[in-house]
Amino acid sequence: LRLSGQQPEIPLELQDAESTVSIRADSQEKDKDTYRLHGHVEVTYRGMKVTADEASLNETTGIVEGRGHVTFTEAGSHLEADDIHYNVHTGVGCFTNAHGYVRAKVRRRARMLETENPFYVSARKIERRGESTYVVEGARLTTCECEKKGWTIGARRARIEVGDKVVSRDSVLRLFRVPVFYTPYSINSIARLPRQTGFLLPHFGNSTQKGFIVGGGFFWAINPSADLLLGVENYSIRGLARSGRFRATPSESSDITIDYYGVNDK
Q1: CA dist 66 to 39, 87, 129, 259, Å?
Q2: What is the overall mean pLDDT for the chain?
Q3: Is residue 188 predicted with pLDDT exceeding 90?
Q4: Tens digits of residue pLDDT in 72-102
């Protein structure tokens, strides 16, 4: 482990992005193996970056402890927190009063359809136990960027396997922040590959032109290069509406998307 910071600076020809921890701050001091950093702190290592108002870094253990306006950024992931305790060697860390998103690292493959949504999380405590495993306490979980316009799962404790599934305990499903039902144990797929066949969560809304809206849908992952989404909605003023979307990638240089929408307008 080598460190580069404002003072002293390691020559560029000796720096190795795979083994060098870079530190920046308005002021810094060293006490034995520990660097104490104050003001606009930045700690970077490989593809990871931590910023904070103040932090400490132990060059022997590789442990970063940061406080105040903490952000943690890595490829596909972004978390903001009050405090962080993170080991740059192992990738294991803990965040308090944190929120942000995590996204699976998936290499795109030809003729392979996949979902794009990141997974949003807000929790009293987030433990990062590896590149794709998080354990959260007092959490709200969703794939909707805005909680007010979609669904969330509030859980006492949950385990997130990024790109695979969420296992939650003592959880409550909310639609538009309204509690719908409680379950002591649930498993929800957040897999990008492969997409999974199944019913979608129901949705509700209100419109001056359509009235009260209630709807649902079904997703069919036909094969790795084709899928079908079918939906139905009831508009209290207008009538029953039907929708569908078929996607396919027949070859590496072609793709097909067919959309359908119809309503029995009163």
Answers
A1: 11, 12, 18, 49
A2: 83
A3: no
A4: 998 878 999 999 999 998 889 999 999 998 8
CB–CB of 123/98 below 8 Å?
A: yes
For residues 3-8, give the mean pLDDT: 52
Residue 32, sorted as left (phi over 0), alpha (psi -120 to 50) or beta, turns out to be: left
At 51, list the tokens. Answer: 């910023």
Q: What is the dihedral of CA 220, 221, 225, 227, to 10 degrees?
A: 20
Sign of the C-alpha dihedral, residues 197, 198, 201, 207?
A: positive
In one-letter notation, the amino acid at residue 17 is A
Q: Are strands 211-223 and 226-235 parallel, antiparallel or unpaired?
A: antiparallel
Q: How far is CA 202 from CA 85, 94, 172, 216, in A?
A: 39, 34, 15, 5
Strands 165-175 and 178-189 turn out to be antiparallel
Q: Quick check: helix, strand or coil at residue 253?
A: coil
Model confidence over 240-259: pLDDT tens digits? 999 999 999 988 889 999 99
The helix/strand/coil state of 56 is strand
